[in-house]
Automatic annotation (TrEMBL):
Family the entry assigns: Belongs to the UPF0389 family.
Record protein name field: Protein FAM162A
Keyword Transmembrane helix part of the UniProt annotation: yes
InterPro entries from the UniProt entry: DUF1075
Entry annotated with the keyword DNA-binding: no
Pfam families from the UniProt entry: DUF1075 (PF06388)
Membrane topology per record: Single-pass membrane protein
Sorted UniProt keywords: Membrane, Transmembrane, Transmembrane helix
Entry's transmembrane regions: 93-112
Major localisation: membrane
Any one Gene Ontology cellular component term annotated for this protein: membrane
Localization: Membrane
Organism: Fopius arisanus
Length: 153
């Protein structure tokens, strides 16, 4: 029972969305069966089949860069939408690849420069520590010599 309700629901929903179309359209009219479809000549302004995309200068540059057309002059005013979308996705992927490479190179640059800076900072710290220790030991020795001189007197 539940399976039957599910099948009816699916069939009705598919019919309402026109996804379930009959394979052949039968007509009772003899005129409709005998008539042949007329073919219209397409020009750039009419849209038959695929949707068309109006091309801007940036779109022309992308189409030429992605080698869909040889030059900007040969790009038509309207281009099929699927060609434009594929060129845009290829351009987007290429831009992301370039950005990833630049990011990786910049990360290596930062690592190298920070290691150099850390080494220089460590050297200065070592020198200041050594100078501080020498100063304290000299003061301590002077104090010892003064104390020993006072005791001997």
């Amino acid at each position: 029972m539940n399976h039957l309700v599910t099948c009816r629901f699916l069939r009705n929903s598919l019919r309402s969305t026109n996804s379930l179309k009959p394979l052949r359209n039968f007509s009772s009219s003899r005129l409709l069966r005998d008539s042949k479809p007329t073919v219209n000549k397409t020009d750039e302004n009419t849209v038959l089949g695929t949707f068309k995309h109006k091309v801007t200068n940036f779109d022309k540059w992308i189409l030429v860069t992605m080698k869909k057309f040889p030059t900007k002059d040969q790009v038509p005013q309207y281009v099929p939408d699927d060609i434009m979308q594929s060129a845009m996705s290829k351009a987007r992927i290429r831009a992301m690849n370039i950005m990833m490479v630049v990011t990786i190179l910049y990360a290596f640059y930062i690592v190298v420069t920070s290691k150099k800076a850390q080494q220089e900072h460590a050297k200065t710290l070592d020198y200041t520590r050594e100078d501080y220790r020498k100063q304290i030991t000299e003061e301590f020795r002077q104090k010892l010599t003064e104390d020993s001189a006072k005791k001997t007197q």
